[in-house]
Amino acid sequence: MAGKPKLHYTKGRGKMESIRWLLAVAGVEFEEEFIETKEDLEKLRNDGVLMFQQVPMVEIDGMKMVQTRAILSYIAAKYNLYGKDLKERAWIDMYVEGTTDLMGMIMYLPLQPADAKEKNLALIIERATTRYFPVYEKALKDHGHDYLVGNKLSWADIHLLEAILMVEECKPGTLSAFPLLQAFKGRMSNIPTIKKFLQPGSQRKPPPDEKFIAVVRKIFNI
What we know:
This protein is α+β, with helices and mostly antiparallel strands. It has helices at about 15-25, 40-45, 70-80, 85-105, 115-145, 155-170, 180-190, 190-200, 210-220; strands at about 5-10, 30-35, 55-60, 65. The longest helix is centred in the middle third of the chain and has 30 residues, at about 115-145.
């Protein structure tokens, strides 16, 4: 029997968090080996296990997978979260790319200069409420089902919930104008594996604080 997937990354969210979400929602137990120093990262690079000298890296099914999108696509397909045909996969991909863009803006906010943070936070909320959330609200309305694609839980739904929660951490109440997304958030949060992942003590990581950002800067020379 294959061992549990092993995730190599820092102790924070970053690009690994969506991978943690997908595995957890699929009900897959995983191990984490944390990169806590620059030397930890250099060791992985010197061992030749990082194809492009970058993390995240996930050991799964005998592979040492890199590149976030490739890892997520593999997990989604493996655990039947990637639609029933090519057309459904295309829709899932489009929805996921949208939430990836939105979460990317939030992910890099703590790394920005203090004088730019307020302006960029306002831009995140503006984009969330005028560019991204209206698309998903309309998708749920037009589709008429509980999920974004087909009538089955997919990677797109999991990614959207993660994005909603990240935006709400930036500014509570951001979903107030989106009743279908509010209902979606409630339904999704009650799926047993998601409910478990959202509880304290899970492998979900907290928002980055200044202490963690300082560690990240040191590890990655940024």
